[in-house]
Amino acid sequence: MEVEVEGRRLRLSNLDKVLYPEVGFTKGQVIDFYTRAAPWLLPHLRGRALTLKRYPNGVEGGHFYEKQRPSHAPEWVRSQAISAGDKMIDFVLCDDLPTLVWLANLADLELHPSLALAEDPDSPTVLAFDLDPGPPAALFECCEVALLLRDMLAQLALECYPKTSGSKGMQIYVPLNTPTGYDITKPFAHAIARLLESQNGDSITSVMKKAQRPGKVFIDWSQNDRHKTTVGPYSLRARERPTVSAPLDWHEVEKVAGGGDPDALALDSDQVLERLTECGDLFASVVECEQRLPDL
């Protein structure tokens, strides 16, 4: 099937192929979701090196990561060559709707952008904390830790914004959009994680070893690295149903931490599209707000 998207010709294939077998969600529905979410999603991808996570046979059929721009990519798909050790990788830049639709047609279900712009890959525009619960800890405990993290950052005059991972955890983003480097953001994130751990050792760990995580929330500070990516806002996740890494309002986090239903934050594609229509982009400040990290 050939379509025209903003003046670009694309060939779409296998639109009826089921990618989420448990709920019958098809590739055509994946493309529809990303098309409708694009006005709010694209600002968070534009100009950033993108790691593709492709599921050509659906979420139950295995996946592979792809960093190098595919050789079959249309000539209008932008890319940026970035050094990675002793080699160069030509990363895709998802700057527009045609590119986003092309990626969705490749069954690139998950979008993993860099925290930095491709033109300056050593200078992150955001600092990220990934909250990863070790069972039996779950999303409820993540909400509790997210509030502790928010309050600590507020003491440093830093605004931060929560989103679900679309899976079992959460991420907290601290927008910067001012000159900095991973050599600054990563030690800062580590120091904050260690400080919270020292104050809440029964519920928080800053240590990566899985043996130390059961029943605790791991504050993963290590994501603040040139060679790592975090699932982007409004990205689908490869779960049983098409859940989304969804930006949240802090009131929603407070409600769950106060005893509300954590499942209320397990938002799927339809719910996220409805939220976008009603509330707009709750993560807009992440690409707009300018902040500088204080010395610790």
CATH architecture of the largest domain: 2-Layer Sandwich
Q: What is the CATH top level name of the largest domain?
A: Alpha Beta
As residue ranges, the low-confidence spans are none
- Could you name the CATH topology of the largest domain? Alpha-Beta Plaits
Mean pLDDT: 97
Number of helices: 7
Q: So what's the overall shape?
A: globular
Number of strands: 14
Estimated helix fraction: 25-40%
Notes on the structure:
Helices cover 28% and strands 22% of the residues. The chain has 296 residues and is an alpha+beta fold. The protein folds into two domains: 2-117, DNA primase, PRIM domain (Alpha-Beta Complex), CATH 3.90.920; 126-288, Alpha-Beta Plaits, CATH 3.30.70. The strands form four sheets. Strands 5, 6, 7, 8 and 9 form a five-stranded antiparallel beta sheet that branches. A five-stranded mixed beta sheet has the order 11-12-10-14-13. Strands 1-2 form a two-stranded antiparallel sheet. The chain is globular, with a radius of gyration of 19 Å.
